[in-house]
Amino acid sequence: MRFVFFGVGAIGGGMAARLALYGREVVGIARGAQLDAIRKDGLRVRTPQGDDVVEFPCVDSPDEIAFRADDVIFLTMKTQDTKSALESLAKCGVRRQPVVCAQNGIENERLALRLFENVYAAVVMMPADFVKPGEVVINCGPKLGVFNIGRYPKGSDMTAEEICRALDGAGFAGFPQADVMPGKYGKLLMNLSNVLDAAAGGLARKSPLADAARAEAETVLEAAGIAVASDFRHDDLMQITPVPGVERTGSSSTQSLMRKSGSIETDYLNGEIVLLGRLHGVPVPVNAFLCHLGRRLVVEGIEPGSLTLDEVQSAYEKTGAG
Asked: What is the CATH number of the domain that holds 55?
């Protein structure tokens, strides 16, 4: 089994490097300064347990890879980049290889299933930072991440079990799960405050606006008849753990702003709740505002964490919904 990581940032980079460090065959697909850094010096992975520089093959496009029948392809880019990534894989002859959506949100699996028959969903609990080319920081222990993996929309098989064994051997914890999507919706609820973290810092995650966004989402999911689970956390195996000499950056949305990537994933996190609310006749003013906030952060080039909670709350109230 060879592991191909499409996206070598915080999640994909950390997973790829650890698997390679423990003897697994790995190929990365990266871009820009990250690709250049990995090709030149390898990828530095800093964890609470150590500091390693790992070398593994990395390319800038799937058409540089001779795909094999035993490849497992992990999608680890943001959802806004998934569609083009899937199309590029299809053009390269990928057909029956497992495609694992190790991403936030729940749209990626639906996009992948349009093109590929063997799609897997992964609930990822791995607080990792990628803000500096050539370096990933994994901020947890004793396990460096927890993954619940199953076929999409349902089912488990030997492939999921083998992937989880490989992750176990690289310092992570992998759990095959036949019904993984309720957990992905549970993780979605956690990610609804990412944009508030990006706008106003970590304390915004516990603000009244964050609570309102989650309550609104819970109402929407109940109206849509969607099951939600929280058993993916495994706090006994993984907790936030400081990495010596490193200050945590914040959510994946915050990291996107810090890297000035030009996009943010809010429309596929809060936007999923907005979509479901509109489909099922449930008002979604808070999550709709947070989608607007995410777009504003990108378009106006607002520095991450530079707004105050009062400024964000005031902006919400000006929409007439507060």
From this structure: 3.40.50.720
| Containing structural domain, residue 92 | 2-317
Question: Strand, coil or helix: what is 80?
Answer: helix
Residue at 322 is within a domain: no
Does 292 map to a domain? yes
DSSP states along 185-198: HHHHHHHTTHHHHH
Q: 215 lies in a domain?
A: yes
Q: Per the structure, how many domains does the chain have?
A: 1
pLDDT tens, the chain, 322 aa long: 999 999 999 999 999 999 999 999 999 999 999 999 999 999 999 999 999 999 999 999 999 999 999 999 999 999 999 999 999 999 999 999 999 999 999 999 999 999 999 999 999 999 999 999 999 999 999 999 999 999 999 999 999 999 999 999 999 999 999 999 999 999 999 999 999 999 999 999 999 999 999 999 999 999 999 999 998 889 999 999 999 999 888 899 999 999 988 999 999 999 999 999 999 999 999 999 999 999 999 999 999 999 999 999 999 999 977 6
Residue 137 lies in a domain: yes
Rounded to whole angstroms, how far apart are CA atoms 156 and 149? 8
Burial of 84 (0-12, 13-18, 19+ CB in 10 A): exposed
- CA 308 from centroid of its chain's CA atoms: 26
Please name which of 221, 228, 234, 239 lies closest in space to residue 180, comparing C-alpha atoms: 228
| Orientation of helix 270-280 relative to helix 285-299, angle to 10° | 140
